[in-house]
Amino acid sequence: MPSRRAARGPAPILAGSTAYGREVASRVAATLGAGLTGDATDVEVVDGRLVAWKPAFGGQLVAAVTATSPVQMVTMRSGVVPPSLSRRQVAALSTLTVQPRSRLWVHRRQQEDALESLSQADAVIGVGQGVTPEDLHELDELCDVLAAPIGCTRKVTDSGWMPHARQIGVTGRAISPGLYVAIGTSGKFNHMVGVRAAGTVLAINPDREALVWQYADAGVVAPFQECVPLLVKELREALS
Length: 240
Known about the structure:
By secondary structure, the protein is α/β, with parallel strands linked by helices. It has two domains: about 5-75, Rossmann fold; about 120-240, Rossmann fold (3-Layer(aba) Sandwich). The protein has helices spanning about 5-10, 20-30, 115-120, 140-145, 155-160, 190, 225-240, and strands at about 10-15, 35-40, 40-45, 50-55, 60-65, 70-75, 125, 150, 180-185, 200-205, 220. The strands form three sheets. It has a five-stranded parallel β-sheet. Strands 1-6-2 form a three-stranded parallel β-sheet, covered by helices on one side. The protein starts with a helix and ends with a helix.
């Protein structure tokens, strides 16, 4: 006989907050009459009910949202949950050779930015307005030694210094690298919520009162122009 849980169906359903995930989740929620919370940054179970944490008021606060329906549904933002271990490959791969019908000719391939470079990196360097475009080259060696791409805050993209694909935070993307190096960022919540799943947050900022220290696991109070060369030297020696 089926169990009581199987008879009444699943209590919570989680889906990715992608374009496809949001469309499927909304259709399933409408069919089941389930409450759906979108773009959550975290979830927890309180008194047997699923609580979804969702940024509100432009990221100034995080609201706890619950559903009263028997089935509770949540879409989770990409990058807020650390990736699980890879599953063992069980599918057989096959190769099929086809002949093109010559109806389409590709003259050139060009990609303006690597959209998945931030989400797939083990280390990411995040910059704020404290790092101007003219000074960005001073981070090249740090990027090289850490094999880290560069992300940024919303103010950086609003200023046109970097493409939106590099933006981290409430209106950008969430990432979960092992190391996040915040350089010249004030540390406002609407940016730092995008790296809450990072393993370690290292902050470099000359302002002792910056909000970023509330989120940093380690930090250096100094201009990055003075700190980064010393950090690169120590990293190279440690890695060698």
